[in-house]
Structure formats: C-alpha cells, structure tokens
Amino acid sequence: MAKVGRTTVLEKAGGKFHIKEMPLPDPPGPGTLLMKVEMCGVCGTDIHMWQGHEGIVVPFPAPLGHEIVGEIVALGEGVENDNVGRPVKEGDRIVIIPLVTCGKCYACTVLQEPAKCLNALAYGHQSIETGFTGGYSEYLHMNIPNTGFLKTDLPPEVAVSLEPTSIAVSGMKRVGVTVGDIALVQGDGAIGLLTMMVTKEAGVSKIFIIGTQKDRLKLAEEFGSDLTINITEVKSLEDRVKMVKEQTRQGLGVDLICECAGVPVAFKEGFQYLRYGGRFCELGHFTDTGSVEINPSTDICAKMATVVGSWSSLPDDFIRALQVLELRKYPVGKMITHRLPLERLEDAFKAMAGDKILDGKEIIKAVIAPE
User: Fold this and answer.
1) Which of 162, 189, 237, 299 is the most exposed place for a label (fewest CB within 10 A)?
2) pTM confidence score
3) Superfamily of 4-154+328-368 according to CATH
C-alpha cells in the first residue's frame, strides 16, 4: 500500500485550490476504512461553497467533494459489512454516504429530522486537519464514527451519481409522488435529470423538463422526458406556461413541481405551472443564492399549494437510490462529459460557475478522477 497520497485543499471561500501530499493511515484505525477514490462528482453545492454563498459552513482550509466512489484499500478492525449487511473486502467498490448523524440529539430523536442533526458531520465539509475526508483526493479515509457506505458492482461512471440520486429520492419521499401524477422538473443539471428518473420510477404518467442547455435537454429526452422546453428558445413565460398546461388534464397545470435549478427566479416561476391543490418540492437551494418575491395569495393560497423543502439525504435514501441505479434502465453514465485530474479541479469550478463550457464542450456532469 502507498505511504502517502494527494488531496486538493481550498484555502478559503473564493480562494485557490492547491494539492497537498499527506501520509496515509497505515493501518486504518478500528471502525474506519481507507478507500482509493475512483471518481468524485463536482457538485453545484461545492461551487457555492467556493463562491462563499451562505447556507453551509465549512472550516477552511478544507478538502471538498462528497459524491465519492472508490475501492477499498484497507479495512480497520470491526468493519465487515456495508449498510445492508453485505460482506466487504479489500478491492470492493463502495460509495460513501457523506452525512453522518448522531442519532441522539433533539433533531434526530424528537423532531425525527436527522438530516438536520445538531451534531452532524459530513465528508467534503471538514477541515484539512481531519485528513483525507474530501472526495477530490486520491484516497478517502472513512474516519467519522458510524459512517455509512454501500457496496456495488455498478461502473464508477454510474455509481458516482448515487449521492445526487439520493437527493432526488429524499425530495420525492418528502413531497409524495402519486401514481399517475404529471410532473415538471425545473433545471436540466444532474439533480434535474436524476429527479426525472426517480419520479418516473415512482409512477408519474408524464414528466416534463425546463432548462437552458441544449445538450442536457437532449439527454433528458433519453431519460424519458415527454416535453423539453429550452428557456433560451422559448423566452416568454406565457408561452412556456401554455406549452406545459396544454399537456395536462383539463389544461389546469401539473400535479407536481420539482425545482432543481437552484435559481431563485425559477422558484417563483414554478407556481405558474402548478394546478390547484398541486405540490411543489424545492430541491435546488442548498446554499443561499438570493431572494425572490412571491405573492402568498395568488401563488400559494389561491393555488391551495403544498410547498415542501428538502435537505440532504440519509442512508435509506441511498439504499433506495442504489436500487434505482441498479435497474440500469437510464443513461446515467452519459451525464459525464468531463473527466478531469486533481490538477484541473479549479477549471471545472470556474466553468460550472460561468458558461458551463470547458475545453470547448458543454458540461453536463464533471467528475474528478485522480488516476
């Protein structure tokens, strides 16, 4: 086993990334494991943390990255099975469940909302003093007590999407998808595409998507979209609303809105597509990107709308998400358009925060692959 490994470190919000070489735990301590990272997905939340948006506190300098898939290099004493009881050994491919909750605090035990655990820790959100705890690294040390993980034989190009798929599962559980629903996804990024997949598996009869990127919307059709709308082509909100409502029962609007764009104005626009008594799930704002004005009377009361916020995901969501991915029905691996080394992490961040073009090609999903 190697004695040292490399990880990327962000010094401060808005700062530069640099690569740091550190000794590896040899052997990993009891209850921990060491994995060699195959891929880590570049998540929009990481971009927002880099930009310094409020909503998630990171103790800088920090190794970021939480959409992590890799192979077990060494097992610490007592680590024998994954979260569903499957035996694990060196060489097995696993996906980390990045959020670790305490199971004891008021949020966990009384409110029954462990995603808001008062003592939560998460991979990709720790100080560099904790070691290899970010996914943009050659190795990850699973050293937070009670960390969850799942074994899989999916290729890394698919398995790396387990964490964002779990976000979609969590949101759909909270809002409640009914068989036969007509749903609209706002946002054509990874969360939007994977939310389409999850809603289809949950039983919707029709699924629509609105976005801005041509290649992403083309892939959405392969995921099974019944209607794709490109905002850059259909510039009028009135025209977009008309296109959507024409595809709904009695022309009243969709049963379910899934806002995955992470753009405040999309939240306001979403209510225009919603039928009376419809449900609205906000999945896209894990950091504070600004405010938007809504009308409580016309947007919510008159609509009799149910609005649900969703935050993070838990082991149960990962288990369900893995079952969906293991159906191998959807072109999840085709989302990856850019596979980059550690040295190009900042290039990916700058492109995703800008026009989403890198090396002359539109980014659907970028991943960091250390080797």
Assistant:
1) 237
2) 0.96
3) Medium-chain alcohol dehydrogenases, catalytic domain (3.90.180.10)
